[in-house]
Amino acid sequence: MSTSQKTSRFSWFRRKKPAPPVVQSLDPANDNVSPRPQPSQPPQPSIAHHPAAPDPRLQALQRPTEPRRGSREEDESHSSQNTSKTDIAPTVEHVHPPNTKNLLLAPGRPQNRDPETRSIYEAPDYCMSTWAEALSRCEQELGSEDFDKVSKFETEQDFFESLRNLHQEDGHESMGRLALLSKMEPCLNHLKSFTTLLAIGQGGIQTAVLWGCFNLMIELALNYEDTLKEITEMLKELDHQLGLFHLYQTHAILQNDPGAREEIVNVLVEVIMFTCLIIRFFRRTPIRQMMETLVNIRGRFEVIAASIRTKTQNVKEKIAALQMNNSATEAAFREAQNLPKTQYEFELMNDIAKLPCIYVPWPENTQFYKRKVVFDSIIGALGPDYTSSQAASDRRQRSLAIYGTAGIGKTQLALAYGYHWHNYYHDSANSAVLWVNGEDQLSFAESWTGIANALALPGASPSASGATENEILVKRWLQTTNARWLLIFDNIEDIELLARNWPKTSPGSILVTCRSVTVAAPLIAKSFEIPAFGIEEGSDFLMSIVGRDANLIEQSESEVKNAQALAEKLGGLPLAMFMMATQIKNRRQTFEQFIPFHAKNSRKLSKKHGANLYYKADLQSAWEIPFRSLGPDAAVLMGILSFFGPDSIPHDVFLTDQAGLKDCAEIEFLLDEWSLGEAVQELLDSTLMKRDANTSMYSFHRLIQDQYHYHMKRDVALKNFQLATSLMNAAFPKQIDGRSLRKYSDKCQHLIQHVTALCHSYTELITESPIDYEFEDFTALLSNAAWHLLEMNYFDVVILLLDTGLRNCKDKKTIGHSNILNVAGLVYIERGDFQKGLEMQLKAEAIRKELLPANHPEIANMYNNIGLTVLSLGEVEKAGELFQMAIEIDMQQPKEDRDQILHIRHLNYADVLLLQKKYVECKRQIELGRVYAILTFGTDTHLVAQSDRQLGNCLAAEGKFAEAQEKYEIARRLFMKENPTQKANSTVCLALGRVLIAQGKYKEAVKTLREGLELCEVNETSKGNDGDMARVMRALSEALQLSEDTEEAEALRTKAEAIRKALQGEAYENMPDNQSSWDALVCCLYR
Question: What is the value of pTM for the model shown?
Answer without folding.
Answer: 0.54
